[in-house]
């Protein structure tokens, strides 16, 4: 077996993960880079040939999701090599300020999310989002089955990064905090060994919810989309997403309502209707429970800022 190659000069130092990718062997591969928000976050989409590289340390934690089917993947973040059968949506977390080795035997596509540890504020730490703490330490250097909610947040963040408006930078900051909170709170991350059939069915249900969240829906209807019994569906949905079905649906409706409050001039009553709430009062109760303020207060704060 051939020895791994250093992707960059072993003595080189890099200020960001993006700098490392642009000034190393990775520069030979197609890549798209986007930046957004106020935390110094960068995201990249890359397409790579088979690699066996030792990567230089960078001052960021890097979340790396596989976007294509890959065969055996070896990861070594300093604690010895871990070999996984890595499929699409596998998530690997690389620690900050540490060299690491990655070997992938196939051509592959990735989405990468680099978050500078120094950007964490006391407020974020108080909220229990600690990137280098126990929340993430046990997952460093592992290829994990990505929770559907986390994967979809990464896609949403990539999309929002295309937009230069100030409100989109605010939205990106909110999505970043949600991403970290979702991952920090995920208690059931497990090494990836192939997606369970139920996971694919739940992903289909989430697509359905995203498409029809403004309409009335029932557990039986969603279970039918998943081709599962209502009881099995409810248990599997909570195990996969971390939320009971209606908590998840209400959460997504509130998030969509918040986006519309900040980006449109629609009345709150109209937003409530479009987001699937029974009326404005129903939206107000759910919104205040989710965000600690009423829709009117959230809109007013945005206008004042």
From TrEMBL:
Keywords: DNA-binding, Transcription, Transcription regulation. This is HTH araC/xylS-type domain-containing protein. GO terms for molecular function: DNA-binding transcription factor activity; sequence-specific DNA binding. Residues 203-301 form the HTH araC/xylS-type domain. It holds the Pfam family HTH_18. InterPro entries: AraC_XylS_family_regulators, Homeodomain-like_sf, HTH_AraC.
């Amino acid at each position: 077996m051939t020895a791994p190659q250093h992707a960059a000069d072993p003595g080189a130092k890099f200020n960001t993960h993006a700098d490392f990718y642009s000034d190393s062997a990775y520069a030979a591969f197609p890549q798209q880079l986007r930046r957004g928000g106020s935390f110094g976050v960068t995201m990249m989409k890359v397409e790579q040939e088979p690699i066996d590289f030792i990567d230089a340390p960078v001052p960021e934690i890097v979340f790396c999701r596989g976007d294509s089917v890959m065969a055996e993947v070896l990861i070594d973040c300093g604690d010895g090599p871990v070999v996984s059968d890595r499929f699409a949506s596998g998530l690997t977390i690389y620690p900050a300020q540490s060299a690491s080795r990655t070997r992938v035997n196939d051509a592959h596509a990735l989405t990468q999310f680099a978050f500078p540890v120094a950007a964490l504020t006391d407020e974020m730490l108080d909220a229990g989002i600690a990137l280098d703490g126990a929340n993430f330490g046990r997952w460093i250097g592992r290829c994990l089955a990505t929770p559907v909610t986390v994967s979809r947040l990464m896609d949403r963040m990539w999309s929002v990064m295309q937009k230069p408006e100030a409100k989109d930078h605010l939205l990106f900051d909110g999505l970043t905090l949600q991403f970290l909170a979702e991952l920090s709170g995920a208690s059931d991350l497990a090494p990836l060994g192939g997606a369970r059939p139920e996971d694919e069915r739940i992903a289909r249900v989430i697509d359905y919810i995203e498409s029809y969240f403004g309409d009335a829906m029932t557990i039986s209807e969603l279970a039918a989309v998943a081709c599962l019994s209502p009881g099995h569906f409810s248990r599997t949905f909570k195990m996969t997403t971390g939320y009971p079905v209606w908590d998840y649906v209400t959460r997504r409706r509130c998030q969509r309502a918040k986006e519309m409050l900040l980006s449109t001039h629609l009345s709150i009553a109209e937003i409530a209707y479009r987001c699937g709430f029974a009326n404005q009062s129903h939206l107000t109760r759910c919104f205040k429970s989710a965000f600690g303020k009423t829709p009117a207060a959230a809109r007013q704060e945005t206008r004042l800022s």
